[in-house]
Design a protein that fits this description.
about 220 residues, single chain, eight-stranded parallel β-sheet, alpha/beta, binds pyridoxal-5'-phosphate, TIM Barrel
Length: about 220
Protein backbone atom coordinates (compact mmCIF):
# COMPACT_ATOMS: atom_id res chain seq x y z
CA UNK A 1 0.00 0.00 0.00
CA UNK A 2 1.25 3.43 -0.91
CA UNK A 3 0.01 6.55 0.73
CA UNK A 4 0.80 10.24 0.72
CA UNK A 5 3.48 9.88 3.39
CA UNK A 6 5.25 7.08 1.53
CA UNK A 7 5.05 8.92 -1.79
CA UNK A 8 6.56 12.02 -0.20
CA UNK A 9 9.38 10.03 1.38
CA UNK A 10 10.16 8.34 -1.93
CA UNK A 11 10.29 11.62 -3.82
CA UNK A 12 12.31 13.44 -1.15
CA UNK A 13 14.87 10.65 -1.07
CA UNK A 14 15.31 10.90 -4.83
CA UNK A 15 15.89 14.65 -5.10
CA UNK A 16 18.88 16.72 -3.92
CA UNK A 17 18.54 18.69 -0.67
CA UNK A 18 18.86 22.03 -2.48
CA UNK A 19 15.76 21.34 -4.55
CA UNK A 20 12.50 22.64 -3.06
CA UNK A 21 9.55 20.30 -3.38
CA UNK A 22 6.24 22.10 -3.86
CA UNK A 23 3.46 19.63 -3.05
CA UNK A 24 0.69 20.50 -5.51
CA UNK A 25 -2.55 19.95 -3.61
CA UNK A 26 -5.06 21.47 -6.03
CA UNK A 27 -8.48 19.77 -5.87
CA UNK A 28 -7.32 17.69 -2.87
CA UNK A 29 -9.07 17.86 0.52
CA UNK A 30 -7.55 19.31 3.69
CA UNK A 31 -7.17 15.79 5.13
CA UNK A 32 -4.69 14.94 2.37
CA UNK A 33 -2.77 18.17 2.90
CA UNK A 34 -2.61 17.50 6.64
CA UNK A 35 -1.25 14.03 6.00
CA UNK A 36 1.61 15.56 4.03
CA UNK A 37 1.98 18.30 6.65
CA UNK A 38 2.32 15.79 9.46
CA UNK A 39 4.99 14.03 7.42
CA UNK A 40 6.94 17.31 7.48
CA UNK A 41 5.93 18.96 4.21
CA UNK A 42 5.43 22.74 4.51
CA UNK A 43 5.35 24.05 0.94
CA UNK A 44 2.10 23.53 -0.97
CA UNK A 45 1.00 24.71 -4.42
CA UNK A 46 -2.47 25.54 -5.67
CA UNK A 47 -3.67 26.82 -9.04
CA UNK A 48 -6.89 28.59 -8.02
CA UNK A 49 -6.67 31.64 -5.80
CA UNK A 50 -9.96 31.18 -3.96
CA UNK A 51 -9.32 27.49 -3.30
CA UNK A 52 -5.90 28.36 -1.90
CA UNK A 53 -7.32 31.16 0.27
CA UNK A 54 -9.94 28.82 1.75
CA UNK A 55 -7.29 26.20 2.53
CA UNK A 56 -5.04 28.86 4.03
CA UNK A 57 -7.85 29.87 6.38
CA UNK A 58 -8.48 26.31 7.51
CA UNK A 59 -4.98 24.85 7.76
CA UNK A 60 -1.87 25.43 9.94
CA UNK A 61 -0.41 28.88 9.53
CA UNK A 62 3.19 27.76 9.01
CA UNK A 63 2.30 26.35 5.58
CA UNK A 64 3.95 28.26 2.75
CA UNK A 65 1.41 28.65 -0.04
CA UNK A 66 2.58 28.92 -3.65
CA UNK A 67 0.25 30.07 -6.41
CA UNK A 68 1.25 28.05 -9.48
CA UNK A 69 -1.70 28.70 -11.78
CA UNK A 70 -2.56 31.36 -14.29
CA UNK A 71 -3.50 34.57 -12.47
CA UNK A 72 -6.70 36.50 -12.75
CA UNK A 73 -5.82 40.04 -11.75
CA UNK A 74 -9.09 40.73 -9.98
CA UNK A 75 -8.41 37.84 -7.59
CA UNK A 76 -4.88 38.75 -6.51
CA UNK A 77 -6.37 40.60 -3.52
CA UNK A 78 -7.61 37.35 -1.99
CA UNK A 79 -4.09 35.99 -1.51
CA UNK A 80 -1.97 39.12 -1.04
CA UNK A 81 -1.92 38.82 2.75
CA UNK A 82 -0.41 35.35 2.87
CA UNK A 83 0.95 34.00 -0.43
CA UNK A 84 4.62 32.99 -0.18
CA UNK A 85 5.54 32.76 -3.87
CA UNK A 86 3.64 33.40 -7.11
CA UNK A 87 4.99 31.24 -9.95
CA UNK A 88 2.86 32.17 -12.93
CA UNK A 89 3.38 35.88 -13.54
CA UNK A 90 3.27 36.55 -17.24
CA UNK A 91 2.69 40.27 -17.68
CA UNK A 92 3.88 43.58 -16.30
CA UNK A 93 0.30 44.61 -15.53
CA UNK A 94 -0.09 41.54 -13.30
CA UNK A 95 3.09 42.52 -11.45
CA UNK A 96 1.61 45.97 -10.92
CA UNK A 97 -1.55 44.50 -9.45
CA UNK A 98 0.42 42.18 -7.14
CA UNK A 99 2.48 45.18 -6.04
CA UNK A 100 -0.63 47.22 -5.33
CA UNK A 101 -2.22 44.48 -3.23
CA UNK A 102 1.03 43.62 -1.42
CA UNK A 103 1.44 47.26 -0.45
CA UNK A 104 -1.92 47.24 1.33
CA UNK A 105 -0.55 44.54 3.60
CA UNK A 106 2.87 46.09 3.91
CA UNK A 107 4.47 43.02 2.35
CA UNK A 108 6.95 42.23 -0.38
CA UNK A 109 5.64 39.33 -2.45
CA UNK A 110 8.13 37.08 -4.21
CA UNK A 111 7.28 36.31 -7.84
CA UNK A 112 8.57 34.13 -10.65
CA UNK A 113 8.12 35.14 -14.26
CA UNK A 114 6.62 32.34 -16.32
CA UNK A 115 8.57 31.58 -19.46
CA UNK A 116 7.00 29.92 -22.44
CA UNK A 117 9.15 26.91 -23.24
CA UNK A 118 6.54 24.46 -24.54
CA UNK A 119 5.98 24.10 -28.26
CA UNK A 120 2.19 24.00 -27.77
CA UNK A 121 0.29 27.28 -28.11
CA UNK A 122 -2.00 26.53 -25.21
CA UNK A 123 0.54 27.26 -22.46
CA UNK A 124 0.79 30.70 -20.93
CA UNK A 125 4.08 32.43 -20.58
CA UNK A 126 6.48 35.10 -21.72
CA UNK A 127 9.13 34.87 -24.42
CA UNK A 128 12.73 35.19 -23.20
CA UNK A 129 12.96 38.65 -24.73
CA UNK A 130 9.76 39.77 -22.96
CA UNK A 131 11.23 38.54 -19.68
CA UNK A 132 14.38 40.54 -20.30
CA UNK A 133 12.32 43.61 -21.13
CA UNK A 134 10.36 43.35 -17.87
CA UNK A 135 13.41 42.68 -15.70
CA UNK A 136 15.36 45.61 -17.10
CA UNK A 137 12.43 48.03 -17.28
CA UNK A 138 12.49 51.32 -15.40
CA UNK A 139 8.89 50.74 -14.33
CA UNK A 140 9.89 47.67 -12.34
CA UNK A 141 12.01 49.76 -9.97
CA UNK A 142 8.87 51.54 -8.81
CA UNK A 143 7.25 48.29 -7.72
CA UNK A 144 8.68 48.17 -4.23
CA UNK A 145 6.28 45.54 -2.92
CA UNK A 146 7.23 42.77 -5.31
CA UNK A 147 10.51 41.00 -5.91
CA UNK A 148 11.23 38.86 -8.96
CA UNK A 149 13.23 35.97 -7.56
CA UNK A 150 13.34 33.61 -10.51
CA UNK A 151 11.66 31.95 -13.46
CA UNK A 152 9.09 29.21 -13.97
CA UNK A 153 8.47 27.02 -16.99
CA UNK A 154 6.14 24.25 -18.08
CA UNK A 155 7.37 21.83 -20.69
CA UNK A 156 5.29 20.40 -23.51
CA UNK A 157 2.91 17.59 -22.52
CA UNK A 158 4.88 14.82 -24.19
CA UNK A 159 6.73 11.58 -23.46
CA UNK A 160 9.57 12.64 -25.74
CA UNK A 161 12.50 12.86 -23.32
CA UNK A 162 14.73 14.61 -25.80
CA UNK A 163 12.23 17.36 -26.38
CA UNK A 164 11.64 17.78 -22.64
CA UNK A 165 15.39 17.90 -22.01
CA UNK A 166 15.80 20.53 -24.68
CA UNK A 167 13.01 22.72 -23.30
CA UNK A 168 14.33 22.51 -19.73
CA UNK A 169 17.90 23.21 -20.88
CA UNK A 170 16.85 26.23 -22.88
CA UNK A 171 15.26 27.80 -19.80
CA UNK A 172 18.20 26.87 -17.57
CA UNK A 173 20.64 28.52 -20.00
CA UNK A 174 18.55 31.66 -20.20
CA UNK A 175 18.20 31.74 -16.39
CA UNK A 176 21.98 31.49 -15.94
CA UNK A 177 22.57 34.25 -18.45
CA UNK A 178 20.03 36.54 -16.81
CA UNK A 179 21.49 35.81 -13.36
CA UNK A 180 24.84 37.26 -14.38
CA UNK A 181 23.10 40.67 -14.57
CA UNK A 182 20.38 40.18 -11.96
CA UNK A 183 21.70 38.49 -8.85
CA UNK A 184 18.30 38.49 -7.11
CA UNK A 185 17.29 35.58 -9.35
CA UNK A 186 17.63 32.38 -7.34
CA UNK A 187 14.73 30.10 -8.18
CA UNK A 188 14.16 28.05 -11.29
CA UNK A 189 10.80 26.29 -11.02
CA UNK A 190 10.42 23.49 -13.52
CA UNK A 191 9.35 19.86 -13.36
CA UNK A 192 6.10 18.09 -12.45
CA UNK A 193 5.19 14.49 -11.54
CA UNK A 194 6.11 13.06 -14.90
CA UNK A 195 9.31 14.95 -15.54
CA UNK A 196 10.78 16.32 -12.30
CA UNK A 197 13.82 13.99 -12.35
CA UNK A 198 14.76 15.19 -15.80
CA UNK A 199 14.03 18.82 -14.89
CA UNK A 200 16.40 18.58 -11.90
CA UNK A 201 19.07 17.00 -14.07
CA UNK A 202 18.69 19.98 -16.39
CA UNK A 203 19.06 22.54 -13.59
CA UNK A 204 15.72 23.01 -11.83
CA UNK A 205 15.87 23.87 -8.12
CA UNK A 206 12.11 23.86 -7.46
CA UNK A 207 9.73 21.13 -8.59
CA UNK A 208 5.92 21.21 -8.51
CA UNK A 209 4.68 17.69 -7.88
CA UNK A 210 1.01 16.80 -7.47
CA UNK A 211 -0.25 13.42 -8.60
CA UNK A 212 2.95 11.56 -7.67
CA UNK A 213 2.26 12.59 -4.06
CA UNK A 214 -1.51 12.76 -3.75
CA UNK A 215 -2.60 10.37 -6.51
CA UNK A 216 -4.53 11.19 -9.64
CA UNK A 217 -6.92 14.12 -9.50
CA UNK A 218 -10.62 13.36 -9.92
CA UNK A 219 -11.24 16.13 -12.38
CA UNK A 220 -9.21 18.26 -14.71
CA UNK A 221 -7.77 21.27 -12.92
C1 LIG B 1 -1.13 20.73 -11.62
C2 LIG B 1 0.18 21.40 -11.82
C3 LIG B 1 1.38 20.77 -11.45
C4 LIG B 1 1.46 19.37 -10.88
O1 LIG B 1 1.07 18.43 -11.83
P1 LIG B 1 1.32 16.86 -11.57
O2 LIG B 1 1.47 16.31 -12.94
O3 LIG B 1 0.11 16.35 -10.88
O4 LIG B 1 2.54 16.72 -10.76
C5 LIG B 1 2.55 21.47 -11.63
N1 LIG B 1 2.57 22.72 -12.13
C6 LIG B 1 1.44 23.36 -12.49
C7 LIG B 1 1.54 24.73 -13.03
C8 LIG B 1 0.21 22.72 -12.36
O5 LIG B 1 -0.90 23.37 -12.72
Amino acid sequence: MFGIKENLATILSSIPKEVTLVAVSKTKPNADILEAYHAGQRVFGENKIQEMAAKHDELPKDIQWHMIGHLQKNKVKYMAHFVDLIHGVDSFSTLKEINKQAKKHNRVINCLLQAKIAKEDTKFGLSFSDIETIITSEGLKELENIQIVGLMGMATFTEDQEQLAEEFSSLKNFFELLKTQHSQLKTLSMGMSGDYQLAIKKGSNMVRVGSAIFGARNYIA
